[in-house]
Amino acid sequence: MSARTGILYLVSGPSGSGKTTLCRRLSNEDEASYAISCTTRKPRPGEENGKDYFFLSIPEFQNKIATGELLEHAEVHGNFYGTLLSEVLNKLEAGVDVVMDIDVQGAALVRESKHPIIQHSLVDIFIMPPNAEELRKRLTGRGTDSQEIIETRMRNSLDEMEHWPKYSFRIVSGSHEEDYIFFKALLHGERLRISRHI
Question: Coiled-coil region(s) at which residues (predicted)?
Answer without folding.
Answer: none
